[in-house]
Amino acid sequence: MDRIAILEKEISELRKTLEEKESELYEMKKNWMPIQNRPQENSASWQQNEINGVKAQYGDKLPKWAIERYSRQILLPDIGVQGQEKLCAAKVLVVGAGGLGCPAAVYLAGAGVGEIGIVDYDNVDLTNVHRQILHGECDQNKSKAESAATTLRSINSHIKITPYNIQLDSTNALEIASQYDLILDCSDNLPTRYLLNDLCAIVKIPLISGSALKMEGQLTVYGYRAERNVNEKNFSYQGPCYRCLFPKPPPPETVGSCSSNGVAGPVPGVIGALQALEAMKLIVGHPHEKLLVERLLIFDGEDITFRTVKLRPKNLSCEVCSETPTITTLVDYEIFCRTQAKEKDLDLHILPPKNRITATQLDELLKGRHDVNEDKRHLLVDVRNEAEFDMCRIDGAVNYPIEKFRGEKVNELSNIVNDGCQLTFVCRRGNDSQLAAKLVLDLISEDSRGLVKDLVGGLHAWAETVDKNFPVY
What is the Cα 405 distance to its own chain's centre? Predict the structure, then answer.
């Protein structure tokens, strides 16, 4: 074991040295590159073109290195030399360096997008590596934004990569977004989704929004404006924004997440790659009929099918993107959505304190040392799905998956409580267990309500305070 520890330390030091050398090489290449071969900081990007039939003007032909590097996509009539020049001048902000953001950023960097910003507040965790392809085992506990930037620079040293190791919110979003031409929403929570939608509506840039959960993914383009594209026939056309379709957020307990519901790694890979493709099409000037504007792409990994559904057009009285908006500044989106933007810290508070129990108290109860309840019968109900229950569980627990917890199952447990049995619900983090407990509490008598509990913090709390060997996932 000592030898393993020594080797791990040596490898870590070597990786750090390699990163420093790669960073030094990147700066040398950037400074050495002839000035005429660099993407121009102030060159016209796709949304700054003239309209009304006046064609945009670009600089000289692409340099030798760019023609050689990007030749396979320059050959496409839909891109060509002018399209590649637009890509080299474009600035794209990717919000989220996770399952969606990693593949999206890889293909944007490979395509030669001149500047890519990467926003992510989180650090790399081992559970990320199966789908977040810019990170590896050696990047654990490193900033995701920095890890992604390092990998992207190794893919393309001709472009500018700017990492933002911050939580994007209403205090900093405008300053960052004002430096970019379009935004990719690769986040995983409602507050950020509404924040990015309102932000893009205010600064009038398009938003390419993707999502992935379990075996399904979705993709669409919000906030498209034809006036920015010389290839449009009708410059007055505008696509819907997210609020046009969903003015108010759903209850937080109805929204799933990858950490709670799982995700197959290739699913966000597919959607993230398609986000990059839509970004490239936007940049080179495809009209809205060829983009996912007013259309939602749905990918089902179960049977490998794609389908598109028609979305409602722009809401002319939308609060944020209409001609007379009532929302003109960014708000506190965690309050608006009644949930946190940091999904890892999600902590619902549905039950009163009397119906909650700590991991230590549950341990005492299970061991029969809890004075108040030592004479009571007790049933421990785990509401995670069957796959999670099979992975790990507290001894003696029975499995009632939350997605099937309704009707007869709720009545069955309610009758047990009315007969004097104490009931404790557990889940992974203490959220679903509250939902299940509330269903039972709504059916039992007032005298029996004190017998229903849920484990605060779920099995994560159990692993932290009771059983250090209990798997955390």
Answer: 28
Amino acid at 110: G
Query: Mean pLDDT, to the nearest integer, of 289-313?
Result: 98
Kindly give the residue spans of alpha helices, DSSP state H, lying in 64-166.
Answer: 64-74, 80-89, 101-111, 144-155
Chain center to CA of 102: 11
- Choose the catalytic residue: 102, 241, 337, 427: 427
Dihedral (CA of 37, 43, 47, 48) sign = negative
| Dist CA 362 CA 379 (whole Å) | 11
252, 337 Cβ separation under 8 angstroms = yes
Do residues 123 and 144 lie in contact, with contact meaning Cβ atoms separated by under 8 Å?
A: yes
Question: Do 46 and 229 touch, CB atoms closer than 8 A?
Answer: yes
Nearest alpha-carbon partner for 142 in 128, 159, 161 = 128
Alpha-carbon gap, residue 455 to 433, rounded angstroms: 7
Contact 105, 148 (CB under 8 A): yes
Contact 444, 347 (CB under 8 A): no
Model pLDDT for residues 171-207, shown as the tens digit of each residue: 999 999 999 999 999 998 999 999 999 999 999 999 9
Question: Can 102 be counted among the known catalytic residues?
Answer: no
Catalytic residue among 241, 244, 258, 337: 258
pTM: 0.75
CA gap 392, 467 in Å, rounded: 12
| Burial environment of residue 60 by CB neighbours within 10 A (0 to 12, 13 to 18, 19 or more) | exposed
For residues 118 and 153, give the distance between their C-alpha atoms in angstroms, rounded to a whole number: 12
In the prediction, which pLDDT does 353 show?
94
Q: Strand, coil or helix: what is 44?
A: coil
258 catalytic per annotation: yes
Q: Provide CB contacts within 8 A for 254, sequence distance 6+.
A: none
* Maximum pairwise Cα distance, the chain: 86
Band (pLDDT 50/70/90 cuts) for residue 19 is confident
Q: What is the pLDDT of residue 179?
A: 96
- Bridge-based pairing of strands 115-119 and 160-164 is parallel
Residue 19 · residue 150 · CB < 8 Å? yes
Q: Could you give the C-alpha distances from 444 to 233, 415, 422, 441, in angstroms and in order?
A: 64, 8, 12, 6
